[in-house]
């Protein structure tokens, strides 16, 4: 009787339907826990970010020292800073694996197009949020990274220079830029929360996919308690992995130049973004023309957004698509290669390798996905 009375309450009924009695395919594996782990990462980033903002000063003369003040003088400040800085890397690791899982098991196919599109929008917003957050410590790599990346907008015809001036708040990366980036970095995570809610709503409209890629309408279990216990294993494993970086290797994923105060008169030998931007940065660098490079970055996300509509295969899971499965592992290796190229100097042979890897990236989404779908569908019909 008590359970029935709880379900009759509107808010509790919604929670019960979506996080307690929500039916999930019985054969989903641990890769399906990455969505909830990504949610945990977002909560950690928002919580630590709010506390860090209480002590941070968004001024070019004080920003760097305010970060050092947090690290040295604020009680537990070092933990907040390292959790926030490494938390961004953890967030991207989880989301990247989550997206490649979706690619492998065909989670982007009909009727889950909106789910994939919102997921790509979340990735794009994560990249923007992380980039402007990287500027806030106001170290050498922060300053020069902001200068290089924001100046790319100048390649846009007619309005490019006006966009750069608006981003900078003046005629160079200065105090107005830092203030704008701080405001946006505080705001955008809450937009991410909103997009995440839409992502969950899109997921729950048609239910979760499964490793077989087949309908599991009659083979489902309630989310609680089975999948909560299963996800708990993933959460604990992730917490251990995260803690190792925070406590033992807190600066491993950062760049040492960012521990040098920003100096507009001294350009670093190599301007390198954070590791989770390197694959995009490599595609940008592989094209010598600035406008074409910006166009290539736009095409990256256009390709990702268009994937559900480029797909022509009636089969979801790569477990049953032997030709496409080989290309999936190639695109995974290609992204690792692009990330490696992105941190190398702009010289041969890295230039030509980056160009070839960039060509294959677009070849996979724009040619391989639609072509292998039709080819494998034809082979299935021919054999039958």
Topology, pairings included?
Blueprint: H1 2-8, H2 10-19, E1 23-25, H3 34-53, H4 63-72, H5 77-105, H6 113-135, H7 140-151, H8 160-168, H9 175-206, E2 220-222, H10 223-248, H11 278-285, H12 290-310, H13 322-341, H14 350-383
Antiparallel strand pairs: 1-2
Descriptive report:
The chain is mostly helical and 384 residues long. It has two domains: 21-208 and 215-268, Cytochrome Bc1 Complex, Chain C (Up-down Bundle); 272-376, Helix Hairpins. The protein is built from 14 helices and two strands; from the N terminus they run ααβαααααααβααααα. The protein has helices spanning 2-8, 10-19, 34-53, 63-72, 77-105, 113-135, 140-151, 160-168, 175-206, 223-248, 278-285, 290-310, 322-341, 350-383; strands at residues 23-25, 220-222. Strands 1-2 form a two-stranded antiparallel sheet. α12 (290-310) runs parallel beside α14. The chain is globular. The mean pLDDT is 90. Residues 1-212 form the Cytochrome b/b6 N-terminal region profile domain. Residues 213-383 form the Cytochrome b/b6 C-terminal region profile domain.
Could you give a short account of the major beta sheet? 2 strands, antiparallel
Shape-level CATH architecture of the largest domain: Up-down Bundle
The shape is: globular
Structural class: mainly alpha
Distance between the termini: 55 Å
Specify the helix fraction band: 55-70%
CATH topology assignment of the largest domain:
Cytochrome Bc1 Complex, Chain C
Annotation, overall tally of beta strands = 2
Rg is 23 Å
User: Biggest sheet, strands in spatial order?
Assistant: 1-2
- What is the CATH C level class of the largest domain, in words? Mainly Alpha
- Strand composition percent: under 5%
How many domains is the backbone divided into?
2
Count the helices. How many? 14
Could you state the CATH homologous superfamily of the largest domain?
Cytochrome Bc1 Complex, Chain C
Q: SSE order, as H and E? A: HHEHHHHHHHEHHHHH
């Amino acid at each position: 009787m008590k359970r029935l009375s709880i379900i009759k309450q509107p808010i509790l009924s919604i929670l019960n339907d979506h996080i307690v009695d929500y039916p999930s395919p019985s054969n989903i594996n641990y890769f399906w826990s990455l969505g909830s782990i990504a949610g945990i990462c977002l909560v950690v980033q928002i919580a630590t970010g709010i506390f860090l903002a209480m002590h941070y000063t968004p001024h070019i003369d004080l920003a760097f020292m305010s970060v050092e003040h947090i690290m040295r003088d604020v009680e537990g400040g070092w933990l907040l800073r390292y959790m926030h800085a490494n938390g961004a890397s953890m967030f991207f690791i989880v989301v990247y694996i989550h997206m490649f899982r979706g690619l492998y098991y065909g989670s982007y196919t009909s009727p889950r197009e909106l789910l994939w599109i919102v997921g790509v929008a979340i990735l794009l917003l994560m990249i923007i949020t992380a980039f402007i957050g990287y500027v806030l410590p106001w170290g050498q790599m922060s300053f020069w990274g902001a200068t290089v990346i924001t100046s790319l907008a100048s390649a846009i015809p007619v309005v490019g220079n006006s966009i750069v001036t608006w981003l900078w708040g003046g005629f160079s990366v200065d105090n107005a830029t830092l203030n704008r980036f701080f405001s946006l970095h505080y705001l955008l995570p809450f937009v991410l929360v909103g997009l995440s809610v839409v992502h969950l709503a899109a997921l729950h409209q048609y239910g979760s996919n499964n490793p077989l890629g087949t309908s599991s309408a009659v083979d489902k279990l309630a989310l609680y308690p089975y999948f909560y216990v299963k996800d708990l294993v993933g959460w604990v494993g992730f917490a251990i992995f995260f803690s190792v970086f925070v406590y033992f290797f807190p600066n491993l994923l950062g760049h040492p130049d960012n521990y040098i105060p920003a100096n507009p008169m001294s350009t670093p030998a190599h301007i390198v973004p954070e590791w989770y931007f390197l694959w995009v940065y490599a595609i940008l660098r592989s094209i010598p023309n600035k406008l074409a490079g910006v166009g290539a970055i736009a095409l990256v996300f256009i390709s990702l957004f268009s994937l559900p509509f480029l797909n022509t295969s009636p089969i979801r899971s790569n477990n049953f698509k032997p030709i496409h499965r080989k290309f999936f592992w190639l695109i995974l290796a290609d992204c690792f290669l692009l990330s490696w190229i992105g941190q190398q100097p702009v010289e041969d042979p890295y230039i030509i390798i980056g160009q070839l890897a960039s060509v294959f990236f677009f070849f996979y989404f724009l040619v391989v996905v639609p072509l292998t779908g039709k080819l494998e569908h034809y082979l299935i019909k021919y054999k039958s």
